[in-house]
Task: inverse folding
């Protein structure tokens, strides 16, 4: 059977898993009428927000689709629309299952920890499998249609342009979804906490707080829908970039059949890992020690171990059975012989021959990177280890020392992942050159189904805790959901570290695609990417600036929108004293509506930053110093944004997770427990960490991709 | 007369100015016996700390001197010792004048604002002129001795090695001084604030606080001595790197006489700007509006404007009178013709001919960059503008929103300086290639005397306020010193932005020296610095990691040492209840001693990070992938550290200054004034900003230089 067809079948299996598992989740009890009522309010708010958000994004999307059509043609425009729409669909489905699973998890947790974990994780797994499945279907379906139905050669420019446009569609929607959702969730969270916990002195998720529903809506539209769109984008971009780079670098040196197999390999890697992820989900259950993290780890480890032989087998299949025959030797001298700069670059890109076995080892490198990043992130964000405990201890001496220690940990948390990524780059590159790095990134992303499952479980448990509190369930239920939620903070940080780590590899691949495209389109322009070229340094600096500026905008947006929530809640308390007395209900919908408007307004400008900057930098530098320096600066910008973005994102997501769990660690009874001065300081740290880890930090990942993809599209548009 | 001799005379003029002005400051009244007693305690603590600090550094310094002697020979070892010793001397003198001026400024402020400003500024000017003067004397003296006395050619390897070793000595001592002083001052400050203001509820600088003397000592050993050593280092490295680059790139193509003039040009630029700075100091006086910032600006503007014709005249002189003759054409093809990679790089480094007029315009670019950075930093850190006001407004909704807004501003504050630096790089490069960038950086640093004067005035006024408070002077005195201090926060941030901005240019120059040295020493090794080489990417990532890891260590050190101060102060309050009652005196010396030990212990490891990392990266990568990739990764590391360090340093120093002044803005009666909830939140922000702006952030500047210099020395050592 055709490899791509098998990959498509695997994608369909993921969708089937999603449908079956959704039914299983939905068949569970929703608990009392009060719980159903609360959940309905959250559902309504989440739907209303996502509807408005996607309507707004659609306007930008349509403009972009028209531009893609005008500059690149009909097929890329169609691919762009597919990527954009499916990105939106992924977010919508993720949100829909999560707003239904939350109340069922609360009810499940009232029965047992295992039942709560099981429901929350199943809901996460639905989102996870649909992210991976839909992404795989989109890219494999497009490739199959263009090559096997329309009849293009696998490395035809039409196929490459379509893959890049698909990635652009997915990325563009993702950055809006990630940022809009991130601003919504944290504006509501910060606002609710500031007036509720700090001013009014009522606990988190108290039904008297007019922002409490908005806060719970936020978990679903930000941590769930936004995250799903983000990982969908990461999957498409990574797998797509691997295929594009394979076509560009090796296309002219291989037989059409062999190239088809090699380009299909990333797809079947994704396909087979969906199957191993589905098997892995079965193993997520509490052991004798009742360790929640242990239960999740079991599923992850089973998936990873099963993936190893599976990757070997599909590689062998895709390469026609021979794992030791050299690949790439024929292409060693190809792409741009007439370009005096390029050959040297190409030698460095290493098209020295590598074998199927080398590729397999690169995939193992990807799996090892994923495992290490999971482990390092857990170290930095779990309540078990030094970093979180040090922040908790620093809370004893006040707000200031809590924040100082949290910032120190957030800076420190970048070190080990960076070393892992550097070693991974060197290992994969030594094995199989740039193609090796691409396949390492692909095998990282192949586990996305499982990783997203672990992450999407988090907001469900967070919501479940909120519902338990608002519905006045027994304290033991809240204790169980809190335990689930603390692990959720870690798994949420893990996904972000994983996404940005894979971005580190993917950006190199995209840069490779950029330089190769440059050789193809502008063979007569000698671009010098050496660090001794000051325009390269300027490009690096401008690229490095993007995550900072973007982060500043994200943080300011949360601060501003959060401030509006504070004023709204104060106003409701003031005009309706019955709320605090418990005699009348606050107007939840008004707060949701306010946050919705604020988040959508605030997401536009920062999201356009990575779209417009590469274009502006190219044209300004080209005008000042000529086209070749324009290309050099633009290329350097692509690496600058990853070199700086990696650190900004890692520090923000790990630091934020650590602050959050330091608060939970104190709430568990350490350093005086709830209500102590240390706890107040820890709440401050948590508030600071919120926009760090859930707004600005994670949105850096799609931002990096967009910058890269826009640059590649710009080359195509300039060449046309 | 010989140009270098004139430069030396200018350096001596600076020293003379220092002596005369010191006498003028010392002749002012020290006020009451109580004030003298307090000042004596501060003096004693500062001397004890610096003594211990330099003793510890001396151990490291001697080891390094021996290594330099063994690997490079006697002259470089001697140059290293000169740089190291003078760096220490600069710090000592700066501290000595500042601990005497503080009490006189307090007394002066009791007479009038003008008198306080005048004394504080004069004391700052002594430090400023000595920094510039001693740095110029060191480098001009060394150059003169080697060329005119010993008889080496200006571009002889012995001269180049000596200049690099001199810079290494200055940088190595500076990073210890900056970091050790930074940890001391902020550990004492944070500790004093946390127990004093927050727990005991006593005002800042209350004599009952056992950490109050340590806090005031910190201003002198950190903000004054540490800063002086830092700027001394920046001056030496920038001027030295310009000379070295001139020798390396143009040495073989020019006549010996012309080369001597061109290499002496940076020295005479420094010399003449000392004279314009001295003239500028005369104009620092309050106008009709009593604007303190205005008074300081007057001095700065006069200096800058006078420097323009002065720079033109000395350039004309150094180049033999002809400003329009082409320079560098003969060298266009020289350094490493036998290296197939290098020629292309060299073309890009641009040795296309440029004229004296081009160089003059590059110097103007440097002045414009300096002016713009001063103006941007003032915008971000002064109480007059949106950034500080936005942090103050965010304080109303609590600690969390204050910190969020402060972080947002700190991220945002990197944008404009980066754009200015990028435009400056392009402008200078377009005018005169890499040499143009070097001369732009040199003219920036030529203003160091004036800039340091503006900065060093800050800690003196801060101390004066403390002495006024402790000695129980009239509230009007404290109001005046507070007004002076608020401006001091801005000027302190300005110097840091200026130092790191110049580092952005200097790092490019040092990278140029690295690649040129590589071509000279290892002409047979083809090093590929293109961004498409994954080892370059790995180098960039590892370089970018350094400021993060270094920042984490600095922040943790302050947190840990500050925690020790908190425990010590609590213990004194507990064991001696008479302190709070005002019946017995706290043991100030015990606290000073404790902070001294903690700071010295904590400074060692992070200071060695930039010394050891380049060596480790080279040897590890060379072992894995061969020498050429080792050189590529090492070179990329040098740029990675600046690309990331620029942002880390700018965000930390501007953000910290903004937080500090947001607190002052509230204390001025906005948002409820002192004692309000907003004020408490602003104190938290200030505490967080302290290690940002005074420990981790500013130490990034010498860190960048050391990394670069160690790499250059490593090349020399490997070649020998």
Result:
């Amino acid at each position: 059977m055709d490899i791509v067809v098998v990959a498509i079948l695997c994608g369909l299996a993921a969708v089937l898993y999603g449908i079956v598992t959704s039914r299983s989740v939905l068949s569970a009890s929703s608990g009392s009428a009060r719980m159903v009522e609360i959940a309905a309010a959250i559902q309504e708010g989440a739907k209303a927000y996502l509807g408005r958000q996607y309507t707004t994004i659609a306007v930008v999307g349509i403009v972009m689709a028209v531009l893609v059509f005008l500059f690149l043609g009909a097929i890329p425009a169609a691919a762009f629309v597919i990527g954009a729409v499916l990105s939106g669909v992924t977010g919508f489905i993720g949100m829909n299952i999560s707003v239904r699973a939350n109340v069922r998890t609360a009810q499940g947790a009232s029965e047992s920890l295992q039942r709560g974990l099981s429901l929350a994780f199943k809901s996460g797994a639905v989102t996870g499998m649909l992210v991976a499945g839909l992404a795989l279907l989109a890219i494999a379906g497009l490739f199959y249609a263009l090559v096997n139905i329309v009849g293009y050669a696998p490395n035809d420019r039409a196929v490459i342009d379509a893959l890049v446009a698909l990635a652009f569609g997915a990325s563009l929607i993702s950055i809006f979804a990630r940022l809009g959702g991130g601003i919504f969730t944290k504006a509501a969270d910060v606002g609710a906490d500031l007036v509720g916990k700090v001013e009014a002195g009522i606990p988190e998720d108290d039904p008297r707080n007019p922002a409490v529903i908005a806060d719970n809506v936020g978990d679903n539209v930000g941590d769930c829908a936004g995250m799903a769109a983000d990982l969908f984008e990461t999957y498409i971009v990574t797998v797509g970039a691997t295929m594009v780079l394979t076509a560009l670098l090796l296309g002219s040196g291989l037989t059409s059949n062999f190239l088809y197999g090699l380009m299909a390999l990333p797809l079947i890697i994704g396909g087979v890992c969906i199957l191993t992820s589905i098997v892995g989900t079965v193993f997520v259950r509490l052991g004798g020690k009742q360790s929640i993290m242990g239960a999740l780890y079991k599923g992850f480890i089973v998936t990873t171990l099963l993936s190893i032989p599976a990757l070997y087998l599909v590689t062998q299949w895709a390469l026609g059975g021979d794992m030791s025959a050299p690949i790439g030797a024929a292409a060693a001298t190809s792409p741009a012989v007439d370009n005096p700069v390029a050959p040297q670059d190409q030698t460095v890109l290493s098209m020295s021959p590598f074998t199927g076995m080398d590729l397999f080892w690169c995939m193992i490198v990807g799996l090892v990177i994923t495992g290490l990043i999971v482990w390092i992130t857990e170290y930095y964000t779990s309540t078990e280890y030094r970093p979180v405990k040090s922040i908790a201890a620093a809370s004893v001496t006040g707000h200031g020392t809590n924040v100082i220690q949290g910032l120190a940990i957030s800076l420190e948390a970048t070190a080990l992942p960076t070393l892992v990524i550097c070693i991974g780059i060197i290992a994969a590159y030594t094995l199989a050159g740039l193609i090796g790095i691409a396949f390492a990134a692909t095998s990282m992303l192949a586990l996305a189904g499982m990783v997203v499952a672990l992450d999407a479980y988090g907001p469900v448990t967070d919501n479940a805790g909120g519902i338990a509190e608002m519905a006045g369930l027994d304290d033991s239920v809240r204790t169980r959901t809190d335990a689930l939620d603390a692990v959720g903070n870690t798994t949420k940080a893990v996904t972000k570290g994983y996404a940005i780590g894979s971005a580190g590899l993917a950006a190199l691949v995209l840069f490779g695609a950029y330089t190769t495209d440059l050789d193809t389109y502008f063979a007569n322009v000698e671009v010098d990417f050496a660090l001794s070229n000051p325009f390269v340094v300027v490009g690096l600096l401008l690229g490095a600036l993007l995550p900072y500026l973007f982060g500043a905008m994200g943080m300011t947006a949360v601060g501003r929108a959060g401030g509006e929530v504070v004023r709204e809640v104060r106003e409701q308390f003031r005009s309706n004293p019955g709320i605090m007395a418990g005699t009348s209900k606050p107007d939840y919908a008004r707060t949701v509506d306010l946050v919705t408007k604020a988040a959508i307004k605030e997401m536009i400008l920062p999201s356009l930053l990575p779209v417009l900057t590469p274009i502006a930098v190219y044209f300004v530098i080209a005008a000042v110093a000529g086209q070749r320096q324009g290309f050099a600066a633009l290329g350097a910008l692509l690496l600058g944004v990853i070199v700086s973005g990696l650190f900004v994102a890692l520090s923000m997501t790990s630091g934020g997770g650590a602050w959050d769990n330091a608060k939970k660690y104190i709430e568990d009874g350490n350093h005086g427990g709830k209500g102590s001065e240390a706890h107040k300081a820890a709440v401050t740290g948590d508030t600071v960490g919120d926009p760090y880890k859930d707004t600005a930090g994670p949105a850096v990942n799609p931002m990096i991709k967009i910058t890269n993809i826009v640059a590649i599209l710009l080359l195509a548009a300039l060449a046309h």
About this structure: Residues 29 and 464 of chain B are 13 Å apart (CA to CA). Residues 3-327+352-719 of chain B form one domain.
